[in-house]
Specification:
TIM Barrel; 14 strands; binds S-adenosyl-L-homocysteine
Length: 377
């Protein structure tokens, strides 16, 4: 299979990469070089809709402008180094970034839609106890170019194969906590919505967060996309253990922030994600408590069977337990769906994404030390 390649001159790290510039930023750039701002729309269309990165091929730009741009700026995406397809059609790409780190992006085809799961950070700092990305530690935030580059690459590859536009929905649910990389994530999401780029509506973009309250409120003003919140427990004691950021932003305040988020968006519901961990958070009592906790928030609940990884220490609840849990919530009038596990045999399911990178937090080392000696470093 032929993978899209960016132009060779453009791969030089020293040249400014405009891939992550939204329309406003690109207009500013053209103004700064004495050009008319409408050039931004022309170039956006070439890059994001036609997959053309070489200025020499952008035939509606004047020859002198094309020459002027080439060598000065470029459009570059990460590079695909591995492409895996699972039995259910889920596809996972391992992408290498310019600094040698790598991240993962997942495409989930369903009838009538195709969802791309995008990463926002190299690793994650949040340390949720059941997540494989957390085990890897953290290296850095992705740039807006690296975030939108995942969509550009996926669209281009899939279009080449199917001759139709395949990505209809985006979920910011890959590696990392998107709200801890706020500016770059928002800029990339602006490009996703831009008519001259991908033209996705806010409803078709979902950002998943573990619940960072100040950034949630900023997001509702700047770019109110659909919001998913990783709840996973119905009380602070358990959530502190599973999602440690809860110590800073406890459940009561989180629910208040969720209500606020939906206020400006009358038809919007928050999606609460709830990973089903056997014997940990999956009893009837947990379900009843959960129903009470979310009672005043316009919401639906997404139950996620736990996706295992080596030494996780957890097991998924059985399907019958998950169904019973769902029935209790439904009886209380809460729309509840169980998320289908997709692509698990290629480790592409929720929480299994890892990539390869240098852990600047040394979390892996600390964990190994702890396991072998019992001491906490
Ligand atoms: N940092 C964001 C995005 C993370 S991944 C957040 O916390 O929402 C997206 C979802 O997958 C989150 O709800 C996350 O809690 C869940 N998840 C993580 N590890 C998982 C695992 N091993 N099995 C199932 N779901 C998992």
């Amino acid at each position: 299979m032929k993978l899209p390649v960016t132009d060779i001159a453009a791969n030089e790290a020293s040249i400014e990469n405009l891939m992550g510039h939204d329309r406003q930023a690109l207009e500013q750039y053209f103004i700064s070089i004495g050009e008319k701002p409408f050039r931004a729309a022309q170039v956006l269309k070439w890059v994001h809709q036609q997959g053309v990165y070489n200025f020499s091929d952008m035939t509606n730009l004047s020859k002198s402008l094309r020459t002027n741009l080439a060598g000065k700026v470029s459009f570059r995406t990460p590079e695909i180094i591995k492409d895996q397809v699972s039995e259910d059609g889920t596809r996972k790409w391992l992408l290498r970034l310019q600094d040698g780190n790598s991240i993962e992006t997942v495409f989930i085809p369903e009838s009538g839609r195709g969802t791309l799961c995008i990463s926002s950070q190299v690793g994650c700092t949040l340390n949720c106890s059941f997540c494989a990305t957390a085990r890897q530690g953290f290296n850095r935030n992705l740039t807006s170019a690296e975030i939108i580059g995942q969509l550009r690459l996926a669209n281009q590859l899939l279009v080449n194969e199917d001759s139709q536009r395949p990505v209809t929905n985006v979920v910011m649910m890959g590696m990392g906590e998107p709200l801890l990389n706020y500016d770059n994530v928002v800029q990339a999401m602006q490009l996703m919505q831009e008519d001259f780029a991908y033209g996705l509506s806010k409803r078709r973009i979902t950002l998943s967060t573990s619940g960072l309250l100040p950034e949630m409120s900023r997001l509702s003003r700047d770019c109110a996309v659909s919001l998913a919140v990783s709840l996973h427990a119905p009380d602070d004691e358990l959530r502190n253990e599973l999602v440690p950021i809860n110590r800073k932003y406890p459940i009561k305040e989180l629910m208040q922030a969720c209500r606020e988020y939906t206020k400006g968006l009358p038809h919007q519901k928050i999606t609460f994600e709830y990973v089903m961990l056997e014997g940990v958070n999956d009893t009837d009592a947990h379900a009843r408590k959960l129903a009470k906790v979310v009672a005043n928030v316009p919401c639906k609940i997404n139950l996620i069977p736990f996706n295992p990884f080596t030494d996780s220490g957890y097991r998924s609840s059985s399907m019958s337990r998950i169904n019973r849990f769902r029935d209790i919530l439904m009886q209380k009038g809460i729309i509840t769906v169980t998320r289908k596990t997709r692509g698990d045999e290629i480790d592409a399911a929720c929480g299994q994404l890892a990539g390869k990178f240098t852990d600047r937090t040394q979390r892996t080392l600390r964990l190994q030390h702890q396991q072998s000696t019992g001491d906490i470093l």
